[in-house]
Amino acid sequence: xxxxxxxxxxxxxxxxxxxxxxxxxxxxxxxxxxxxxxxxxxxxxxxxxxxxxxxxxxxxxxxx
Length: 64
Description:
2 helices; 3 strands
């Protein structure tokens, strides 16, 4: 299921890599697109949104 998440702490390519790894640890087949400028992470996965939010937050990037 596609979801759009606001992640205010994303600021660079390293941040994108960390968030991507966090989501892929939950679902290796997830599709992730990050808009650094607008601080939005688009995720397409079958996992529940709460699990995706928790994975991103545990990597140090809380979702608002």
